[in-house]
Amino acid sequence: MPEGSCRGHVISLILSENKTLRIGSMMTFYVAQGLPLGLFLTAVAAWLSSNQMPPAAIASLVATAYLPWSFKFIGAALMDRYTYLPMGRRRGWLIGSQAVILVGLTVAALAGPAPQDMALITVLGVLIFSGGAMQDVAVDGLAVDILPESEQGTASAFMFGGQALGMAIGGAMGGYLLQHYGSGTAFAAFLPFNMAFLLLALILRERPGEKLLPWTKGQASAEALNAHGVPWLRILAITFRSMIRRDSLILLAASMFGRAVGGAFTAFWPVFATTQAGFSTSGYSGMVATVGLLVSISCMGVGTLLVAKLGPRRATIVTFAGYAMMSLVYLISPEIAMIGYVFVLLSIFREFTDILTSISSNPLRMRLSDKRVGATQFTIYNSLSNLPVALGASLYAWAFGAGGMTLLMVMLIAMTVASCIIFALLRIGNVVDTPAEHEDELVAVVN
């Protein structure tokens, strides 16, 4: 029976049988990740800055809140080893992660912290981001499990475009509500969205014949049984061998420099906007939301085309170079960046750079991940790419305090150039890869 038809008046939504459903669902769950990211990294950061909280405290919030994303490989290893297979390899964890976000938002809404309650805001951020990080692990593991290689570039574009869309909505809503109605109302407004995402996770199936819920009929699929249950030592051995491949190490090194630059800009941007460029909390959040909405939709098409035409390796180099261009503007003439419309243009360029770097590099991580330990290995790549975001935020606080704008931007330019040079050393990710030349790298994908 075709996907989406009625079986006993119940609509069956099976990811493995429907390309549109696969890509659409992964995009939707990335929107779900983006909402709290936009709320905290855009709206809350601008709200704190507008209320005279020091840049170091805001940078510390960004760095600390990002820690669950940096160490999510621990949860990924658990996910690869333990799950309730009759409901699919990833879906039980996906449902649980949405529940954690729901709890975090509920506590935040009830607590209604003031700007001075930095410790409480940080704890709430860590809790909510922990749920988001685990959801990211589940979706990424699902992508490695279920996406054919031909869909990886398109899926990546829609996933990260969806995340940017969620961040735009989260920043706009959060900024407006924080300024006009307070934090309790702002956090409560996100609860209906999270409930809808939780409902979607509850009604999907990964493969035919699986249970919808633990008490319904169904059984584990052959694919899930074959891929799951690898012993701990075997998981570690497979992951270790894959991670120490030449291209794997190059990918990690290049991502470390590039993502740290992105993290520095994440902490720098709301502070510069509200202290130098004359934006209020809601004004900045609204601007970022509008920019994010337009750019995220554009990037779904631009990212797909860019990866298809250049290949993920070249596309990654081109997009990461955008950070050097932004840094050069602030280095040469920070006064120009203070002008309202110039800052908006820079914000558009930064949003394009942030999204396209993720879209371009994501297929590289998918390509190098062994399906048997897909959640663990893919998450290690992403975790080790997210850890520099926290380090970059801390770097911003140190460099700006030690040498001001000049030292900060010189360091960011040097790190971006290093990232692009290292990415150029990759042997995978061209428009057409030759299996004979890259047999070792491709074995992990087809096993």
Describe the protein in words.
- Strands 1-2 form a two-stranded antiparallel ribbon.
- 78% of the residues lie in helices and 2% in strands.
- The relative contact order is 0.15.
- The protein has 17 helices and 4 strands.
- It has helices at 19-50, 55-65, 67-70, 73-81, 91-111, 118-146, 149-181, 183-188, 191-203, 222-227, 232-243, 246-275, 281-332, 334-338, 340-368, 374-423, 439-446; strands spanning 6-7, 10-11, 13-14, 204-205.
- It has a single domain (6-446), classed as Growth Hormone, Chain: A (Up-down Bundle), CATH 1.20.1250.
Q: Could you tell me the mean pLDDT? A: 82
Strand arrangement across the biggest beta sheet: 1-2
CATH topology: Growth Hormone, Chain: A
Overall spatial form: globular
Distance between the termini: 30 Å
CATH class membership: Mainly Alpha
List the main descriptive attributes of the protein structure presented here:
mainly alpha, single chain, 447 residues, disordered N terminus, 78% helix, Growth Hormone, Chain: A, disordered C terminus, two-stranded parallel sheet
